[in-house]
Hints:
By secondary structure, this protein is α+β, with helices and mostly antiparallel strands. Helices cover 44% and strands 20% of the residues. The strands form four sheets. The protein has a six-stranded mixed sheet with strand order 3-2-1-4-8-14, sandwiched between helices. The longest helix is centred in the last third of the chain and has 91 residues, at 477-567.
Amino acid sequence: xxxxxxxxxxxxxxxxxxxxxxxxxxxxxxxxxxxxxxxxxxxxxxxxxxxxxxxxxxxxxxxxxxxxxxxxxxxxxxxxxxxxxxxxxxxxxxxxxxxxxxxxxxxxxxxxxxxxxxxxxxxxxxxxxxxxxxxxxxxxxxxxxxxxxxxxxxxxxxxxxxxxxxxxxxxxxxxxxxxxxxxxxxxxxxxxxxxxxxxxxxxxxxxxxxxxxxxxxxxxxxxxxxxxxxxxxxxxxxxxxxxxxxxxxxxxxxxxxxxxxxxxxxxxxxxxxxxxxxxxxxxxxxxxxxxxxxxxxxxxxxxxxxxxxxxxxxxxxxxxxxxxxxxxxxxxxxxxxxxxxxxxxxxxxxxxxxxxxxxxxxxxxxxxxxxxxxxxxxxxxxxxxxxxxxxxxxxxxxxxxxxxxxxxxxxxxxxxxxxxxxxxxxxxxxxxxxxxxxxxxxxxxxxxxxxxxxxxxxxxxxxxxxxxxxxxxxxxxxxxxxxxxxxxxxxxxxxxxxxxxxxxxxxxxxxxxxxxxxxxxxxxxxxxxxxxxxxxxxxxxxxxxxxxxxxxxxxxxxxxxxxxxxxxxxxxxxxxxxxxxxxxxxxxxxxxxxxxxxxxxxxxxxxxxxxxxxxxxxxxxxxxxxxxxxxxxxxxxxxxxxxxxxxxxxxxxxxxxxxxxxxxx
Length: 665
C-alpha cells in the first residue's frame, strides 16, 4: 500500500537519483578469488554473494511487478485526429544500457519517430531517463511498451504437439523447459565483464584482447599473479577505473539468471490456412508419436518481474518481451522478396544464422564468437552447406566493426550474393554512439507486434500472466475423474435421500387418500340410498297420479253415459227377446252395474251358438256386446251362461291411453 501511494504521488522516477540497489561489497572482498567460477572464460567475474530471497524481499522493482492499474477511458488525442498516431513505446536493453523509441504505426509498417538512450544501470532510473528525453521531443507519450533484451533466448524446437491441437499453458511450459533450460543457462555467458565493458564503451576490443592474453600468460606461469581476475587486471593496466568496473558488476548481478523459475513463449512454426480436419477434431489420442516445429522463447522469471516492476514504477504497461536473436530476420521479410531467406546476425558475443521462408522460421543456429574481428572461417563453419536454390545471404551487425572485405570473402567462398542488411533510418536523429543498424532488431519486433509481419516469424513472451479460463481446468482427466466420483457419490446419496423422502411422502399421501376415499365412499353410499328412495317415491307419485287421472276419467265417462244406460235398458231387453227362438228358453237375467248375465237353455250346442250370434248382433246397436259365453251340458238340455257389458271398448281405450305399456302387453 505504501508503494502504491508513492506511485500515485510520483508517477515517474527521477533519473538523477542513485540506483535502487547499488549495494557492492568492499573492494578487498571483490579482489579475493573464489573457488567456483560460473563461466569458463578467463575474463569472467564472480557474482556477488547475495541471497536471492533477501534481494527480492527488499527490491521495489519486484514488488512493483504485482501492481495492476485500473483501466481508464482513453479519448482520441488531437494528434491522432490529424493523422499523427503514436501507439507504442519500444525499448531495447543490453550491456550498453537502455534505448527507447516512440513508434508510429502505419498501414504498411511501423516507424521509429524518436529515439533516446540511457546508460543508467538501474532499470527504473533508466526507463525514467529515456522517458525524460523522449518527452523533450514529444509532449505526450503512449502508455504501452515492449522490450527487446538478450536475456530472452529463442530457439526452434521439435515438440510432440500439433499446432491444430495445442496443449494447456502448463503442459507447453513444461515441454519447452526441457528444450530451453540449458540454452538459458548458457545465455549467462553473454553477460561477461569484458563484453559489458566493451559494449558500454569503457574498453576497446583490442584492450580486451590484451587483458585476456595477459591473463592466459599469468595462468600459464602460475604463482599469485595467476589468481587475478579480468576486471582487476584491466584496472591495474589503467584501461578502466574502479567505478566503471563496479558499475558493470552491479549490472551483471541484475542480468544474470540465478533462479530456476523460467517463463516461456511459443509460436507454431507451421502455418496452415485450412481448418482442422475431421480426423483431427474427432481424434481423442494425443499427438505423441509425431513432432512439429515450434518457435519458442524463454527468460528468467525474476528478471521478467524486475523489468515489469521498473515499467510499472514509471506508469507504463509492458506488454511483451522480444528476443534480440531473430528480430532482425523478422524484419527482413518486409525488404526481401525472395522465398528462401538467410540472415547471419553478428552480435557482441555470438553469431546466429537464421533461415526460413517469407512466412516461417526454418532454422536458428548460434555459436560463441571468437575474440577480435568477425572471423571468416567461423562464419563459414556456422553457415555450412547452403541450399542450391539460395541466391543471396544477408548479414546484419549491430556494431560498426563489420569489415567490408568480409562480405566479398563470404561471396567468394559461398558462390552467392552477400549483402549487408541495413536499417531504414527515415532521417531519424540518432544518439551518440548508436549506429543505424542497431535498430534492425527494434524495427522487426515492432512490425511483428503490430501485425505487419506473419506471426510465425517470431516468438515473444507475454509480460502479463495469462491465466487460462477456469472452466478449461475442469475438463482435465484428473479433474474429470474427481468430478465424476463426486457426482456419482452425491447422486447416489441424493437418490437415496430422495427415495426416503418420496417413500415417506407417498405413504402419508396414500393414508390421506384412503381416508378421503372412505369418506367419499360413505357419502356416495348415502347418496345412492337417498337416490333410490327418491326414485321409489317418484314412481309411487307417478302411479298415484296415473290412477287418479284414470279414475277421474272413468268417473267422467260413467257420469256422461249414465243417462243413456238407463234409457237403453228397455231396448236391450227387447233385443234379448228378439234373439230368442222357439227352441231357446230364457231362464234367468241378472244385472250388476253395466253387466248382464243371461242363463239360457238350448236343446243343443249348435242352437246355443246360433242364439249367441243373434244376441251379439241384436245388442250391438244399443251399445252392449257379448263378453263371454260359458256352455254347461246337463243330462237333458244344454245350459249356456252369457255375459253382456256396456261399451267395453271405451274402457279398454281409456286404459290404453293412460298406460301404453300395459296396453301393448
